[in-house]
UniProtKB/TrEMBL annotation:
Family matches, as InterPro entries: LmbE-like_dom_sf (IPR024078)
SUPFAM superfamilies with a match to the protein in the record: LmbE-like
Protein's recorded name: Uncharacterized protein
Organism field: Dictyobacter arantiisoli
Length: 81
């Protein structure tokens, strides 16, 4: 406040892994970037990367069918009024 900056309030919150999902996000144009970013974590995915990539693409494609897009992620979306 002393610097003239106003407080920011987040208007929407997206929760991944919630028990109830109510929002799908189209990740068709960013899935390859997501896969490359995951691949950069060699210490975490190592020799299992191809299996993980296959599962990730499969899950995303199944969710995409639900939302009418090629690939999607699912969240519980809530507003913060």
């Amino acid at each position: 406040m002393a610097e003239g900056l106003r407080p920011h309030k987040v208007s929407e919150i997206y929760i991944m892994g919630a028990p109830v999902h109510n929002y799908g996000s189209d990740i068709s144009t960013t899935l390859d970037t997501k896969v490359l970013a995951l691949h950069a974590h060699v210490g975490q995915v190592g020799e299992f990367f191809s299996d993980i990539e296959h599962m990730l693409r499969g899950w995303s494609a199944e969710l995409g069918k639900r939302y009418g897009v090629a690939y999607a992620e699912e969240f519980h979306r809530t507003t913060n009024l």
